Structures are given as C-alpha cells and as structure tokens.
Amino acid sequence: MEIFEAKNITKTFGGLTAVNRVNFTMEKGMIAGLIGPNGAGKTTFFNTITGIYSITSGEMTFDGVSLIGKKSFEITGLGIARTFQNIRLFANMSAVDNVLVGKHVRMHSSLIGQIAHSAFTMKEERESRVEALEMLEFVGLRKSDAETYAKNLPYGLQRRLEIARALATKPKLLLLDEPTAGMNPNETQDLTNFIKRLRSELGLTILLIEHHMRVVMSISDRVSVLDHGEKIAEGIPSEVQSNTQVIEAYLGKGNASKHNT
Amino acid sequence: MNPQIKTSITIGLVAGFVILLFGGWAVAVAGGMAGMGLGFFLGGKLTAKNPIDGAKEALVPTLVAAAILLVVSLLDDLVIATAIGKDPNSIGNLIQANLVGVLSLIFFSVVLAAVHTLPLKQQKIAQFILISFVIVSFPFVDQFTGLRWTAQIIFALIFTILALGLNIVVGFAGLLDLGYAAFFAIGAYTTGILSSPQHGIFLNFWIVIWIAAAMAGVWGIILGAPTLPLRGDYLAIVTLGFGEIVPVIFKNLIKVTIQEPLTCWVIPAITRLFGGNPTIACITFIKDVDLTAGEKGINPIGRPILPFIGEFQSDNSIPWYFLVIAIILMSIFIIRRLRDSRLGRAWMAVREDELAASQMGIDPVRTKLLAFAMGAMFSGFAGAFYGAYIRAIFPSVFDFSVSIIVLCMVILGGLGNINGVIVGGLVIMSADRLFLPALKDFLSGLLQNTILPALSNFPVAQAAVEQNANPILYRFLLFGLTLVIMMAVRPEGLIPSAQRKAELRSEEEIAADQAAAEA
Fold first, then answer.
1. Which of helix, strand or coil describes residue B297?
2. By Cβ atoms counted within 10 A, which residue in A85, A245, B84, B373 is the most buried?
3. Partner-chain residue, chosen from B334, B362, B364, that has the shortest CB–CB distance to A101
4. A97 and B346: CB-CB below 8 Å?
C-alpha cells in the first residue's frame, strides 16, 4: 500500500530548476534511500514534502491526502516528521523540552485550560513529560541528559535528540537528512542499527538522504538517485550500484567508461 | 575578603546612600529593604544545615551592614543635615528611626537567610509570608514616616506591568517590539473614552479595565499580523512605526465622521459621471465627533469605586497601591502559567528556530500572534489603571521614550525572567521618579547652604556650579550610561533567565563563575 506518492514534482527558483519532474512513491514500512551528488536537489525535495517550499507544479499525496498548499505544521500533523542536515535543535532548551515541543502537535489543551491549570491540561502535561522521557531513553539518552541544554550535548546525542524530537510528533513517515553526517564508523554503525529498529519497533516508513554509501546500500529497500534535479535511477541497491548513469553522475563520463571496462 | 562581607558592605552603602538622599525616617524603610536583599543573598550562600546555625552564620555579615547603616544615618543627621540646610531630626525621633531601621535590617536579613536552610517547600512559604508582609505594610510605614514614596512607587509598578507584558513578546517569543507604548495608549484611551464626560459615557472602572485589556489584545493581533513575515531588525522597524502612528492617530481623532459609503460616495459619483445631479440623501452615522480631544487630552477619567473604601481619591495613595499590586499579582500568575505551558514552550521554540519549530508542528503565525495579543493585553491593564490614576491622558505621554524605557527594564532586569523584569522595572522607575528628584534636592540644599557661600569670591564658578548641579538635567545621560555599563559588564541582566545566561555565556564561564562563588 502506497503511503506517499509524488507525481511530476517540479520546483524552480527563478531560472534554476532544483527539482525536475520527479515521480516518487513509497510503500508503507519501507526504507528508501535518496542519493545524489551535492546540489542534486535532495534537500530541496525534502523541503517540498514538508511544506517549506511550495512546489511549482505536480501533485503530492500522503495517506490519500493532498499535500499541495498545506502549511508545514499541518503536514507534521498529518504524520510526516523530519530531521535536518545541519542539526537544528532548540539549542537553549533542555533535551526534554525539545521533545515536548515535538509533542505540541499531539496536545490539545486550550489557552484557558493552560492558565487555569484545568484537570485535562495537567494530565496531558504529566503524560507528555513521561512519554518524552521514554522517548529520550528509546533513542539512547541517559536520564541525566534530560535537563541538559541541547547545545551542551555531544554531537552524536544531538543527532539522536533530533530524531527523538521528530518521533515525538508521532509520524508515519520519517525523513532523515544525512543522519550520519560527521559521525565516526562506530557511531555510524550504531545509528544504522537504530534506523532499522525504528522500522521494526515503531513500524515507520523512512526516507533518508545519505552520503555514506555503505549505510544506504545496507539498509535501503530501494535507492533513488537524483542528479541536477532529475531522478536518473531507481531500484534495489545492487541495481543502482551498477547503473552507468549513476556512476557518471558521481564520477564523470570518462571515469564511468573506465569503470565499465 | 570574604564575599558575604563584601556584599554586606555594598548593600550597607547603597542603603546609606538612600538615607543620605532622603534623610530622617528613610533609615527605617532603607533598613528593611536592605535586610530583604541581604537576606536573600546570604541565604543562597549558607553552609549551615538548620535555621539556628544559619541565623548565626548570617549574623556577622548582617551586623556589618547594620553598622554601616547606623554610621551613615547618624552622620546624615548630625553633620550633613545642617550642610544641606535641613532641620535635623529631634533626638527622640532620631533614636526611634535608627532603632527601627537597624532592627528591621537585622531581622529581615537573619530570618530570610535562616529560612534558606529549611526544606524547599517551607522555605517558599516562609519567604512568601515575609515578602507579603513587607508589601502590605509598605504604604502604611510610608505614611507613618512621612516619606511619601507610595505615589511614585505606583508609577514604578505601572511600568512594571508594562515590562511584564513586553517580556512575553521580547523575552519569551523573541519578537523585538519597539512600539509597545501603542498598546499602553490603546488601553488608556479605551478607558478615557468609556469613562469620562468626553462622550458622556461613565462605565464602571471594574468593567472598563477588562474592555481596555481586551481592546489592547485585539489591537495586538491587528498590529502584529502585518509584521509576521518579518524578523529581527525589520520587525523592530515596523513595530517602531506602529508605535509612532498610534499616538498621532489619537491626537488627530478630533473630527471623526463615519458615513455609509454607498449612498455618500458611490451613487453620487456615478450620478455625476452621467452628468446628473445627486439627489439621494447621504446616511451619516456620526459627524464631526471629537473622539479623543486631541492635544487637550481626555479629562477627568472615572475612578474605581469599592464598597467601604468609596471612590479612590488622589490624595490617598493606599487603595491605588493595593489595586496596582493586585493587577501585578494577577499578571505574574497568568504569565508564569503561560510560560510553563505548551504555549510557553512553543514561544521559546519559535524564538530559538522558527523554521525548525514549524517543521515540528508549531503554527508560527498563531504562536506569534498570541504573543502579541497576550503582551498587549497586560499593557491594556496598565493603560486603564494609568488613565484612572492620573485622571487625564494626552497623546504625548505615549511617545517613543515609553517603549524604550520599558524595553530597557526588560533587558536590564533579565530578558525572559519574570522576577528579573520586576526588579528591572522597579529599579529604573524608582531611580527616575524617586532618587533623581531627591538627589536634586540634596544637591541644591548642599549648594545653597555650603558650596555657594564658600564660592562667594568666585562669581563665575558660582554661576557655573549653580546652573549645572541639577541631576534632572542629566537624566538621560545617567540612564544611557547605566545601560552601557550594564551591557558591557552583565549583558544577561540583573536576574537572568537560565536560557539567556546559557546563550550569552559559555559553559566554561558559568563554571568559572560558580567556582569563584564557592571559593
């Protein structure tokens, strides 16, 4: 069953076409990899899905609902969450508060309720806090880290906290933008296993942009390749690895022919 | 030197300075205030584990401060009073005042320090009782001692409400608003229009104050909406523009005409276009109504009436004092709960990173508009109280300098910290309204009685000193200087919020500060 479908997505900035007639579908429960050289339009594609950019033309549906014209927070409400290429945590808020912000969209206390401390508000706050702490534990932060400012956490934990914050929005589709950037091989391996766990334990559908080929190839059910805003290849990892066009995109034409011989 | 003693000396000297300026019974009030401040400070540093030991530990630094207070006070009465041409206190008065001052300093300091050793809950209760005792007794002590500070303190408290409201917009949501006085004006003018002979409407103050707050809140949304796409500097400029426009509009709303557009403009225009002569009667709702009385201002505005107390009078500050305290307590209550709620977190998230916040499911438009509305609402309360208290409002009162002073209170006190903002508001306004005038009286007394006679042989110097020795002239210079020094030395404010501190100081610096404090 298809959970996400994009048809003929195009995004232009003035004369520059960042994403060009891309078709993309995801089935429920799959892990899809999105690769491509720098400037290929991967992050722009993410940004069109999450409503930062409105697309120039095309159609996009999630769970049967059109995403066209929806605002970012409405899209999060539908069940799409993301992390960022360069970590964008709320640096001067504690780890647990970061996660609670993610919970915001699933909370319903009214303004009056918040001022009057209505029974509903208090219950919701208590439960959300407990859930947020559980979420931190799930992604691998210690209890003692919960009250630490996000900016004071080590880099690896910041990456994990960002995932916890995204998970707190209760997503069905999780978009990870280069989750292993700047990590050493050990940390990368841990995170790869963790992403697998996200699917097996939470039943998430995951789309990830990644430059670490070993990571993408080992966990993706399907890999799509973007170059100059166009999708040039798609398939299971082994197919994509041997695709001439892909090798050309990464290494240039001359190298590609050398590789083939 | 041991930091406890150092602080006691500082606080003792500050209190001494207050006594020098005001003389007489000021020693009683200054002693009490100094005791409160010292007690809070010493309490945080105690090593003792139970109240008795804590009291013993706090006693020595407290006595140092008390000694300074006593020496300065005696010096003031015996030497300085004659130098500035004031009648010294009678011996009986002198003994009484100093006894009260020194004892209240010792009492408050030792007790407040000692309660710090109690478990947190009891400590909060004890502090609450002591502070409410001081707040409640202040106007009566003030009246008894004849200091007459209450009327000025009420002004400081009005501005504190404004600072609390602005803190929501600037401190919590991070939206730099340079036109906050606009909402103060809207609150005050709503009160003026609905409760004065200007329109013959005399609504009860207790109703008007809510209407004024609601009106300010609605205008917070209306004026906030166009600024939403803007950030940082650009937002500041646009709010500055609104802050300038609103008083001008109030100044010019002196001939308001509202007509029905179809019959008055559209149909006559079409008729003329075809060469006809418009005959249709124009429906006019109001014609040439003087809504705000322009520069003359609205006067007199209705005052609050309560059973038993009757109508609040201008010569009796005590009911006004308690009314403004009640408004502040209500504001603190609401603002605290907002800060710790889901909305408060959303404000903080938008301040930290608006894009990330919107990607995490926060509606930035709604969140920012609520910040504008909530912030404006509190200035509506302040405006309504101000209108009723002063009884007359003029457009010139709500100019740019009000917005800037309130912003300075917020930043100086500690952006984002409710207690800090209150302290900032009280310090700046009481410096402006109480201390500068007192300093002026002190200096002119000193000049007339001591310095000018001494300079009688040098008429040029005499004239120069006489002209320039008026601190009121240097009001903005002193204010600016304070800001420059504060921002250089302690940019996070007097009592910073934890976030703000984390933002402005690196971890190592904070650790070093703590280490220095412990050593």
1. coil
2. B373
3. B362
4. no
For chain B, give the number of residues: 519
Q: pLDDT by residue (tens digit) across B270-313? A: 888 888 777 777 788 888 888 888 888 888 888 888 888 888 88
Q: Nearest CB to B343: which of A82, A111, A169?
A: A111
For residues A2 and A70, what is the distance between their CA atoms, to the nearest angstrom? Answer: 20
Residue numbers in chain A where pLDDT is lower than 70: 254-261
CB within 8 Å: A101 and B360: yes
Closest residue of chain A to B507, computed from CA coordinates = A152
Which residues in chain B touch residue A72, judged by CB atoms under 8 angstroms apart?
Answer: 358-359
In contact, A62 and A4? CB cutoff 8 Å: yes
Q: C-alpha distances in angstroms, B498 versus A93, B267, B414, B418, B490?
A: 9, 63, 10, 12, 14
Per CB-CB distance under 8 Å, the chain A contacts of B360 are 76, 81, 101-102, 104-105, 165-166, 169
> In DSSP terms, which residues pair with A227 in a beta bridge?
A230
Question: By CA distance, what is B333's nearest residue in A?
Answer: A115
For chain A, state the CA radius of gyration: 20
**Residue B292 burial by CB count (10 A; 0-12/13-18/19+): exposed, middle or buried?**
buried
Report the SS3 class of residue B301.
coil
Contact B507 A76 (CB under 8 A): no
pTM (two decimals): 0.88
Distance between B164 CA and the closest CA of chain A, angstroms:
16
ipTM associated with this complex: 0.91
Burial call A1-36: b when 16+ CB within 10 Å, e when fewer = eebbbbeebbbeeeeebbbbebebebeeebbbbbbb
